[in-house]
Amino acid sequence: MYKIKRRDPISIESSSKNDVNYINCKRLPIHLICFYNPLTGQRYYTDDVKLMERKRNSQIDEFFRVFSSESKYTMLEFGFDFDMTDSISKVLLVVKRNFDRMGIPNLGFIWLVDKGEKNGTMHFHLTVATEFLNYSGKKLPKHLKMAFKNKKIHSQFVKDRVRWKKYLKQKDIMYIGKRKRVFSKSRKFIK
């Protein structure tokens, strides 16, 4: 069992009240954290960004572990820019309402913030798990395509779950402002 020994600022700039991170950029570590095992005296050093990555990746692993059966569950991926909204809760509400209207159960979701490689736009990735949807063809049916504030939300089936999981886990932790979440999951996953 590791316990926190101390939490030190990495540099003088990060210890001051001025923020070293810039909005819409990759998050920079602010604190160096030392964990130690009181039984063995072993020490483990890390920083705050690595801890966030580990937490995010464990949430992604849990989501894909719970909904791993392709014969039982269908996964849908939604993508939308910050131009639509910078708050994912509003879009989540729209997605949940549309699923309720269609009678499709929302069993769980995960989301994270990403920055586009080509044009540098900030956007959200939302992955939703539902019960198995038997649709022929690989395109998403029209009734599952959604819009928010008269703008289309990019949506598609997650065809290769292993590849999608790897893609989400390799993303950087972004900085979008103080005390703003950049990843999360549903409170509980319904099996």
Could you please describe the fold and organization of this structure?
The protein has helices at 12-15, 48-66, 88-102, 161-169; strands spanning 3-9, 25-26, 31-36, 43-47, 73-81, 106-115, 122-131, 146-148, 151-157, 174-175, 183-185. The protein is an alpha+beta fold and 191 residues long. The chain has 2 domains: 3-51, no CATH class; 58-185, 2-Layer Sandwich (Alpha-Beta Plaits). A hairpin with a 2-residue loop joins strand 8 (146-148) and strand 9. Helix 2 runs antiparallel to helix 4 (161-169). It is globular.
List keywords for this structure.
single chain; 191 residues; alpha+beta; Alpha-Beta Plaits; 2 domains; 6-stranded antiparallel sheet; 3-stranded antiparallel sheet; 4 helices; 11 strands
CATH level-two architecture of the largest domain = 2-Layer Sandwich
Instruction: Kindly report the average pLDDT value.
Output: 85
Global morphology: globular
Strand content: 25-35%
Sequence stretches where pLDDT stays below 50 over 5 or more residues: 12-16
| Percent in helix | 10-25%
Total strand segments: 11
Task: Indicate the CATH class of the largest domain.
Answer: Alpha Beta
Sequence-ordered SSE layout with sheet pairings:
Layout (H helix, E strand, L loop, with lengths): L2 E7 L2 H4 L9 E2 L4 E6 L6 E5 H19 L6 E9 L6 H15 L3 E10 L6 E10 L14 E3 L2 E7 L3 H9 L4 E2 L7 E3 L6
Antiparallel strand pairs: 1-3, 2-10, 3-4, 5-7, 5-9, 6-7, 6-11, 8-9
